[in-house]
Amino acid sequence: MAAILEVDHLSKRYGSGTSALNDVSLDINEGEIVALLGPNGAGKTTLISIICGLVVPTSGTVRVGGHDIRTDWRAARKMIGLVPQEIALEPFEKVIDCVRYTRGLYGLPPDEAYVEQLLRSLALWDKREARTRELSGGMKRRVLIAKALSHRPKVLFLDEPTAGVDVTLRREMWTVVRELRAQGVTIILTTHYLEEAEDMADRIGVINHGQLLLMRPKSELMGEFGKKRLVLDLY
Ligand code: ATP
């Protein structure tokens, strides 16, 4: 399988002196779901933010589809979609316009057929004329996913998609993620929940204190460490 994402020796030291990421290397294959598990402050968001071009690394390289984000950012950017941790939506904007607008930001021409397909696949079509402030928390998260997929990226990053949501919503999000993978999207998500990583991912990476402690197929990890040991090591 080809690696769609290659991260090599990535480090980040913030101005405050915090070493948020320390020599992280990983490859993600096309079509995989990878969960990055780690406690608060582990460095998960920093890693995703660097890959998505929001934070400049101190050292190391990132390639998306073979495109180096430092030298070939335009090409790399088209391949990436990010669903941020915070729900930031324009409250008075209509659902359908959120997606159209985001496509526009990528300089893409309108594609109403794709927008409809996207909203239908996320069960948002019936709500397309609703203002985002009228939506439930779960629907708002799905709008964020629709926005992130508006330019048909190959790799989707979900930064703690289920932080602070109840069990029903969490399960709904898992279903959405599995459906996206079935459509061929490679998915990298961060989470605090072992259960979530275990349920959804093909591979699980464990990050703590800015280091990637391990990255292994889920089945291998669960067999070898057992849940209890993994949780104890993490927290
Ligand atoms: P959480 O699960 O709480 O979101 P995380 O694993 O995503 O945590 P990061 O947000 O990447 O962790 O933070 C890693 C470290 O870097 C933390 O010590 C954090 O305080 C620090 N940090 C993050 N952003 C900045 C910043 N802009 N300036 C200074 N330090 C930062």
TrEMBL record:
Residues 5-234 form the ABC transporter domain. The keyword Endoplasmic reticulum does not apply. Keywords: ATP-binding, Nucleotide-binding, Transport. One of its GO terms (molecular function) is ATP binding. It comes from the Bacteria. This is ABC-2 type transport system ATP-binding protein.
